[in-house]
Amino acid sequence: xxxxxxxxxxxxxxxxxxxxxxxxxxxxxxxxxxxxxxxxxxxxxxxxxxxxxxxxxxxxxxxxxxxxxxxxxxxxxxxxxxxxxxxxxxxxxxxxxxxxxxxxxxxxxxxxxxxxxxxxxxxxxxxxxxxxxxxxxxxxxxxxxxxxxxxxxxxxxxxxxxxxxxxxxxxxxxxxxxxxxxxxxxxxxxxxxxxxxxxxxxxxxxxxxxxxxxxxxxxxxxxxxxxxxxxxxxxxxxxxxxxxxxxxxxxxxxxxxxxxxxxxxxxxxxxxxxxxxxxxxxxxxxxxxxxxxxxxxxxxxxxxxxxxxxxxxxxxxxxxxxxxxxxxxxxxxxxxxxxxxxxxxxxxxxxxxxxxxxxxxxxxxxxxxxxxxxx
Length: 375
Prior knowledge:
Blueprint: H1 2-36, H2 53-56, H3 62-90, H4 95-120, H5 124-149, H6 161-166, H7 171-207, H8 212-241, H9 245-265, H10 275-299, H11 307-330, H12 337-362
Helix pairs in contact: 1-3, 1-5, 1-7, 1-10, 3-4, 3-7, 4-5, 5-10, 5-11, 7-8, 9-10, 9-12, 10-11, 11-12
């Protein structure tokens, strides 16, 4: 009975961790869209109020809706982070999971204050600090989700991969359960962008004063990317959840390569300067950052010769990419575009080297999937 209860608690925690990481990712993108589109001051300096009905609690037009919705998503994500931290400590998760969740929670009040200051006092230093603290929340939450996807990392005393491998009688049942769990996590991963996409689509249609064609275009430009992200995030999480630690790191490194290449192409000011291209650039770069960071974490749990070097390269690439994102967010001008592209290319080459080295050192996984792997 207690074993079943512990398993259910772990499943719930994994789902919460994945959903919180994705919500944090989407929150950063919504914030970037708000600022890039020039909607950050549409509610003026009446934070936390806006310019619409019920004493200014609701928005009056599309621009103020974007700013208002950004605040609403920020509040929801903040509560999810608090819930994740409480679940980590109350559920007896591993020390690193508890500390990572606590780090995100401790940074959260600073981020709230900086978010208010970006509205009331829009300055470059505040903008830089606001984005930097967003990354300081995003990366620990990503760490919690990454460790939650790895068996035996979220609850002290649960079975390790080695003990599961020794239980031959339950191997097939374990594989079936893991596949079902991976499918469940995939559905959870796809849920946040769908939930956010519905009100965005309704607002884009309702607040637009133009003809139906213009309204449809605004819906397509805002809600459709969220739907596309839902379609992409589900299979990605399912594949990661269904692999071994070694295969997860290779998947993450391999998946970050096209994202980094897309980031180079979409670098603001290099080829395209549209709002959609800019948000696409940040989406690809943030997803690559999460993948590189998670790969480094998973490689830390793999006892294979040479993987420490791959881990070091993964973390170095993640740090370089974070610096590049900060530069592009705050100081991107005609003179710094080349710097941003150069840093992105460095990260791309380093990631390619890490992926090739990881594949060469690791070889193929043992047959039988996760249950047969001795990690």
